Amino acid sequence: MSTRRDLRNHIHELYQENGASNALLQMLSQLIPESMQEELLQDEKQGCPEHYVDSLPRVNKNKIEDHETCSICCCRYKEDEYPLVVELPHCGHCFDLECVAVWLSKRTTCPLCRDDVLSHKPKVDVSQVEMEDDWGMYG
Amino acid sequence: MGSRLAKEYVQTAKTLRNDPAFSHVLALAPVSDDVLNKWEATIEGPPQTAYYGYQFKLQIEVDQNYPIKPPWICFEPQTVPHCNVDYDSGRICLNLLDADHWSPAWDLLHSINAIWQLLANPEPDSPLDIDLACLFRTKDYCAHDSLVRYYLNGGSRGSTGPIRGTR
Lengths: 139, 167
Known about the structure:
Chain B: Residues 1-157 form the UBC core domain. Chain B: Keywords: ATP-binding, Nucleotide-binding, Transferase, Ubl conjugation pathway. The structure holds 2 protein chains of 2 kinds. Chain A is built from 4 helices and 2 strands; from the N terminus they run H-H-H-E-E-H. Chain A is mostly helical. Chain A has 2 domains: 2-44, no CATH class; 53-119, Herpes Virus-1 (2-Layer Sandwich), CATH 3.30.40. In chain A, strands 1-2 form a two-stranded antiparallel ribbon. Chain A is elongated and about 75 Å long. Chain A starts with a helix and ends in a 35-residue tail after the last helix. Chain B is built from 4 helices and 4 strands. Chain B has helices at residues 2-18, 108-120, 130-137, 141-152, and strands spanning 25-30, 38-44, 55-61, 72-75. In chain B, strands 1-2-3-4 form a 4-stranded antiparallel beta sheet. Chain B is globular and about 45 Å long. The chains are: A mainly alpha, B alpha+beta. At the A-B interface, helix 4 of A face helix 1 of B.
């Protein structure tokens, strides 16, 4: 009985301090079966790693058509004099860096086709690499 | 992202005027021009369903994180008997509308369109109205449609034809 009251007081305190804090969620998760705990806590960190968006290839301004719009903010890229547009790997869909960064901080899918952007291994670009004929056979 | 709603407003008005593919969306606009985060929609019941001939109103609320977060969309209370709608509150169970399945590339018009399609294609496996879901799952469409009409006619078993529509 007393432990329950303690728990309740503890939860109340945590809630008063910061309702959105993860500590509260962690504590509440102890009340449900272990198998479900993980799932609940995982909700907090579903997005891409922080540096991921910065690593995406930028789209050159010359390659952007005048009428092309970002499907997240519905603005034409060229409305901005220096548009920062990025292309997602694999599916090739483009978005404003600023717009897609917010989305990818919470999710890992392309907004247009739901392709999981983290599911593809980084492609090694070999087209520019000059093949050496001798393959180091000499010396 | 505040300008996105303004752009959607303009774009939606244009689409509704010109695109016959959305003729079943009778209205979709902000409640007032000053407050763009509350919208209202009116859709027509899909043809060849028990909903045909009736009109349905939807309330839409959009918070400041839209379109990263999905819009909140709800039928008017006690207007829509459907296995994926809570009749008393008007709450809609459509996976597109929860955060896990939403995509910021969707807009309000396409969300409303998806709800219109849900009217014609009930999903009895994730029901909010068990009775309608059971009838639909046992493929007793006649009983299902009769029960829908019973509700649509205000709970009285009146004529089975449309009485409230303005067609």
